[in-house]
């Protein structure tokens, strides 16, 4: 049996679902437009540069979830899927996922973006497992805080290993372990698997992959 792990934003999706959710909230009046959009762009820039303070970002990104009733959020997410996620969908990415599923590989998305945003996206891909940053809940409503270790940089390794342990598995359970990612932020997990693959990578990851002899592929044309 093989393990296939996928980053989501700019890897399976041709865009960033976290950033687009922020823009979507601005468009629908859930947050102050100018101030939120400026902060959203700033955090996104830090992410791309590999300098994101994940705790500060999560305090910013999860707060609006606590101010909006869950039923309203769920209805808005349906619109988000149609308006923002569908345009980021790419057939080659779905075909890659389908090949791993057809081969019987254990498949999961491993993403820093929170599970409220990413859960429906991952289910649409048909991927059975999601390892994402978890927004805490109380009584079915979001609290505005994260729970547990954020699925970011080295935290992705810790979260994947905890998930594998919950299945009575470990890295050595697999003949091959794949991880597909676009980002320098994922270098720790890419270095952990047997078969790292750089997908439409940023400059830092592209240079690292070229030096290491990792495959570099495009899913976005």
Characterization of this structure:
With 221 residues, the protein is of the alpha/beta class. The protein has a single domain, classed as Rossmann fold (3-Layer(aba) Sandwich). Helix content is 49%, strand content 19%. The protein is built from nine helices and seven strands. The protein has helices at residues 17-27, 33-49, 54-66, 70-85, 91-102, 115-125, 154-166, 187-192, 203-212; strands at residues 3-6, 106-114, 129-138, 141-147, 177-181, 195-199, 216-217. It has a seven-stranded mixed sheet, with helices on both faces. Helix 8 (187-192) links the parallel strand 5 (177-181) and strand 6 (195-199). Helix 1 runs antiparallel to helix 2 (33-49). The chain is globular, with a radius of gyration of 17 Å. The protein starts with a strand and ends with a strand. The model has no long low-confidence stretch (mean pLDDT 95).
Looking at this protein, list some descriptive labels.
alpha/beta; 49% helix; 7 strands; single chain; 221 residues; seven-stranded mixed sheet
